[in-house]
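Long-time lurker, first post. I've been practising inverse folding by hand and with some scripts of my own, and I keep getting stuck on stretches where the structure tokens seem ambiguous. Below is the full token string for one chain I'm working on. Before anyone asks, I'm not after the true native sequence, just a reasonable design that respects the backbone. If someone could post their per-position residues I'd love to compare against what I wrote down in my notebook.
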């Protein structure tokens, strides 16, 4: 019974987080130039944000994906693809990095799957952390 209650609380917290995100209006996104000539690459974005850990890189890639694709939801393949585009060695366990960002409140699980895979979205605090850049 306690386990069911905890599961229900977790689901409700996710729903509230999504509603809060919607209520705040559009999330503060990193501004990208509209002309292809001035678009920023994933490598440039990574250098600008200066993530120090693989956990930080995962949320940076998620924000980059959100801004470039115009889609709020991502899955592991989206993030791994950006990792490869940046010529970075992909992590052995991307799900672990995503889970660590969930614990930080930077990423939340999306109820709807993307391509029959579990999907997530970047929270407003995740976007804010990336926009500020990372500190050692």
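-- Answer (accepted) --
I ran through it position by position. Result:
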């Amino acid at each position: 019974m306690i386990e069911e209650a905890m599961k229900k609380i977790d689901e409700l917290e996710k729903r509230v987080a999504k509603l809060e995100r919607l209520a705040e209006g559009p999330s503060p996104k990193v501004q990208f130039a509209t002309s292809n000539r001035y678009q920023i690459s994933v490598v440039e974005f990574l250098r600008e944000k200066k993530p120090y850990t693989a956990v930080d890189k995962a949320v940076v890639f998620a924000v980059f994906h959100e801004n470039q694709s115009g889609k709020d939801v991502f899955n592991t393949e989206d993030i791994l693809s950006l990792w490869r585009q940046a010529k970075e060695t992909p992590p052995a366990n991307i799900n672990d990095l995503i889970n660590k960002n969930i614990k930080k409140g930077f990423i939340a699980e999306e109820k709807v799957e993307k391509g029959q895979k579990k999907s997530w979205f970047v929270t407003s605090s995740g976007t804010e952390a990336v926009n500020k850049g990372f500190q050692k």
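A couple of notes from the structure itself: Confidence is low (pLDDT under 50) at residues 31-35. The longest helix spans residues 2-23. Happy to go over any region you disagree with.
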